[in-house]
Design goal:
Belongs to the ABC transporter superfamily. One of its GO terms (cellular component) is membrane protein complex. The chain is of the alpha/beta class and 232 residues long. Helix content is 37%, strand content 27%. The radius of gyration is 18 Å and the shape is globular. Bound molecules: adenosine-5'-triphosphate.
Length: 232
């Protein structure tokens, strides 16, 4: 589903004549299979978000190769990435990243508008999705009128609305209380089981790592070999 080969990434900081290379990811090899829930853990600064941003096409690798759904995306232009993302990837963030001036309904509808889906069809899909995430009564609420857990459900609904086979999540439970976190995790597990959606989840949270089929650990930009896999 996602194949990462010898992927390295450096940032360059400082002024032109004093440009300094900051190597962040170092020869990462990794394969994520269809239907897996994979958590990515590691200390702050270990490169987790950089890896997710590479998988999303928001940054380009310095070297190495990346395939998603058997498509080589390494050299994609921004336009190609934008269309690939809208067909294959959904995103969930710690800070929800909802548009404050749009209602729950409009936030969920947005990816369909961007895909050029007709209004009639959008209405059916958004209403179904509001039911599915238990927010049918909150469709006209703005993000500021929703609890953290409800906002996260809107953001999950927005990620799901285009039926992506893969969802990439950066600390999705980071802003939630214990109970809401458990709700979100069981919803993720349910989506994974019933709809075979592949999840890649960055987390600091042991409970998220607990629902994952596999945990990948980054340390200073290197992937730490998984003992179980290394022993096979
Ligand atoms: N745009 C950038 N320019 C320069 N350095 C960057 C940039 N983005 C990230 N870095 C550096 O890359 C390293 C890895 O950052 P990254 O955000 O991937 O870590 P992380 O594991 O996700 O951390 P956290 O858990 O705190 O979110 C850090 O040392 C960071 O300072």
């Amino acid at each position: 589903m996602i194949k990462v080969d010898e992927l390295s990434h450096s940032f360059y900081v400082g002024k032109k004549n004093k440009r300094q290379e900051v190597p962040v990811l170092k020869s990462i090899n990794l394969e994520i299979h269809e239907g897996e829930v994979v958590s990515i853990v590691g200390r702050s600064g270990s490169g987790k978000s950089t890896l997710l941003n590479l998988m999303s096409g928001y940054i380009k690798p310095t070297s190495g190769d990346l395939h998603i759904k058997e498509t080589r995306v390494t050299d994609f232009t921004e336009a190609k990435w934008a269309s690939f993302r809208s067909d294959h990837l959904g995103f969930i963030f710690q800070s929800f990243q909802l548009i404050p001036s749009m209602t729950a309904y409009q936030n969920i509808e947005l990816p369909l508008v961007m895909k050029g889906i007709a209004e009639k069809e959008r209405t059916v899909l958004v209403e179904q999705m509001l039911e599915k995430v238990g927010l049918a009564d909150y469709s006209d609420h703005y993000p500021s009128e929703l609890s953290g857990g409800q906002q996260q459900r809107v953001s999950v609904a927005r990620a799901l609305i285009v039926n992506p086979p893969i969802i990439l999540a950066d600390e999705p439970t980071g802003s939630l209380d214990q109970e809401t976190e458990e709700e979100l995790l069981s919803f993720i597990k349910q989506l994974n089981k019933e709809e075979n959606i592949t999840f890649v989840i960055i987390t600091h949270d042991d409970e998220v790592a607990d629902i994952a089929d596999r945990t990948i650990r980054l340390e200073d930009g290197f992937l730490v070999p998984n003992e179980e896999e290394a022993g096979r």
